[in-house]
Specification:
alpha/beta; UDP-N-acetylmuramoyl-L-alanine:D-glutamate ligase; 13 strands; 40% helix; globular
Length: 329
């Protein structure tokens, strides 16, 4: 089958509400700074009422990465579940408006479209309270074989490990992708995801995954060590390729016996770290899909991450294609 997409991503379809907050507000709301917490619809509504005025934007980790791939000029597809409600229509419009393929049938009865309340403190750290809603209803039947088989890279969002039906969908997608000779990529998503699903994630990595994205906290949590270098070596033995982000320390790319250290792109002021890992993955996968060397893939990831943390919101506000060209990438 002809390759139609650089990246096809499977993830939670979420609308983000992003607002400034203080550390005191987080304490008052019993939120762990920097973490992603799952909440029910009632808690989500109460938090929305208590938050400062915010910006609403379509989000979700893997969907944000597809937005980044599109901004680089790549071809992306997204598979995820929204409800047949107003926010679901907004999400669908936003994905298609950036040129991404998004055709998953909406949930007609049941839970509302997922919403993530993101409180951003003055240091740029984001604390997320997420109502997963309709996104948890994504199942094997929502996997479109034609999309998976036509993508160079199939990208899976670790957050979906919280739903058993979605894990079965992952297995189906992985089988289709491997049968077509595609690359299977997985992001660990969050330290709490790793703690909840460590054994399942390790098993999935060893048997299904070619490329892993993680940050330093997720990587060390996965292997239950405080030693970053030891965690890197442990990951080297699990997958063919891994890209590990370390905030201002840049990133480390592990490929077989090779290791590449990629510096972070300097940012004048960090405004909001929401989407930094998502955009790093976007840049890296776009580079990989278009045949760039691994160190350049990392540089594209760093460039995209630096752009997104310089403003509110998890998606690029300038053309990453033009930005990369201006840097000779």
């Amino acid at each position: 089958m002809a390759e139609l997409y650089d990246v096809a991503a499977i993830g939670n379809a979420i609308v983000d509400v992003i607002a400034p907050a203080t550390d005191d507000f987080l304490a008052q709301q019993s939120m762990d700074k920097g973490a992603m917490m799952l909440v029910d619809e009632a808690r989500s509504g109460a938090l929305y009422a208590a938050m400062a005025p915010g910006v609403e934007t379509s989000g979700g980790s893997a969907a944000n990465s597809i937005a980044g791939v599109a901004s680089f000029g790549g071809r992306g597809a997204f598979l995820g579940k929204v409800a047949d409600d107003q926010l679901g229509k907004v999400f669908t419009h936003d994905m298609r408006a950036i040129g991404a393929h998004f055709d998953t049938p909406p949930l007609l009865d049941g839970k509302a479209t997922a919403v993530s309340m993101i409180n951003v403190t003055p240091d740029g750290e984001r604390t997320m309270s997420t109502f997963l809603g309709a996104s948890t209803e994504f199942a094997s039947a929502d996997i479109d074989p034609a999309v998976i088989e036509a993508a160079k890279i199939v990208y899976l969002e670790g957050y979906l490990f919280d739903a058993e039906a979605a894990r079965r969908a992952f297995a189906k997608a992985a089988g289709l992708a491997h049968a077509s000779g595609r690359v299977i990529a997985l992001t660990l998503s969050d330290g709490f995801v790793v703690e909840r699903h460590r054994e399942g994630l390790l098993g999935f990595l060893e048997t299904q995954v070619d490329l892993v994205f993680a940050n330093e906290t997720e990587l060390t949590a996965l292997f239950q060590t405080d030693n970053f270098d030891a965690a890197v070596e442990a990951m080297r033995g699990k997958v063919k390729l891994a890209a590990v982000t370390r905030s201002e320390k840049g990133s480390v790319i592990v490929a077989g016996g090779e290791t590449f250290a990629v510096p972070a792109v300097p940012v004048e002021k960090v405004v909001d770290t929401t989407g930094a890992g998502d955009q790093y993955a976007a840049g890296f996968m776009f580079g990989l899909a278009t045949g760039r060397p691994l160190n350049v893939c990392g540089q594209l990831g760093s460039l995209a991450a630096a752009e997104v943390i310089s403003h509110y919101g998890p998606r690029p506000q300038v053309s990453l294609k033009d930005l990369a060209a201006s840097k000779g990438l």
